[in-house]
Amino acid sequence: MKLVLLGPPGAGKGTQAKRLAARYHVPHLSTGDILRSEVKAGSELGRLVEDKMGAGKLIDDETISSVVAGRLAQSDTVNGFILDGYPRTVAQANTLEQRLGSDGLTAVIELSVDEAELFDRIQARATEAGSAGAQARKDDNTAIFRKRLQTFAIETKPLSEFYASRGLLIQIDGRASADEVAAHIADHLPKHG
Ligand code: ADP
């Protein structure tokens, strides 16, 4: 089972990716999580990407593609993976396609949620983190969120067409509850990987 989750920030990709990973017994690869842990660890990569992430901008294709290539080379991906946050540009999608070759993706799931709802969700996410005593994500504030949405519209939205033209795209309404969204996704996928 080799899946890519597409959708704007706040659409619920991470939540659905975790469920899919548990269901198909494959790892959840979130580039955002990988990069945030590098920033936290203060690694060279972390220092390189920190400012761009904090500003809601994408890091460059080559850097992220080599991070993902390294992760996909690990043995736990033999039966597949759930990619969350990659690819995010057409260049990244081409790189992934070349890497996977004929043994390509099973499907690409796009979660769509309108902008007003996304703003509500991101505000709720920041408030929840605050009341749990955790630090909200640095990029979960209105100005940066607006920038992340804009980056998504320009850089990532064209991937819907890219994958639709390959017959891989499954579009799901992401406004429903997490359980309902999961059920809709399940309707389109095999019961077992
Ligand atoms: P979002 O909630 O916006 O989907 P993520 O947690 O997936 O956020 O990613 C956070 C940040 O990490 C992005 O805004 C970007 O700076 C960086 N990033 C993650 N994945 C990629 C990628 N594939 N290409 C470039 N930058 C990325």
Features:
193 residues; Rossmann fold; 5-stranded parallel sheet; 12% strand; 5 strands; alpha/beta; binds adenosine-5'-diphosphate
In short:
The protein has 9 helices and 5 strands. It is an alpha/beta fold and 193 residues long.
Task: Give your account of this protein's structure.
The chain is α/β, with parallel strands linked by helices. It has one domain: Rossmann fold. The protein has helices at 13-24, 31-41, 44-54, 61-72, 90-100, 115-131, 142-156, 158-164, 178-188, and strands spanning 2-6, 28-30, 81-84, 107-112, 169-173. The protein has a five-stranded parallel beta sheet, with helices on both faces. The protein binds adenosine-5'-diphosphate. Adenosine-5'-diphosphate binds next to helix 2 and helix 3. The site of adenosine-5'-diphosphate has 16 residues, from helix 2 and helix 3.
Averaged pLDDT:
94
**Rg result:** 16 Å
Largest sheet: 5 strands, parallel
Order of helices and strands: EHEHHHEHEHHHEH
CATH-derived topology: Rossmann fold
Q: Which residues form runs of ≥5 with pLDDT under 50?
A: none
Helix content: 55-70%
Beta-strand fraction estimate: 5-15%
Ligands and ions found: adenosine-5'-diphosphate
Structural class: alpha/beta
Full CATH superfamily name = P-loop containing nucleotide triphosphate hydrolases
Count the DSSP helices.
9
Q: What's the number of structural domains?
A: 1
The counted number of beta strands is: 5
Distance separating the two termini: 5 Å
What is the CATH level 1 assignment?
Answer: Alpha Beta
Would you identify the CATH architecture? 3-Layer(aba) Sandwich
* Mass-distribution shape: globular
Spatially, the strands of the biggest sheet line up as 2-3-1-4-5
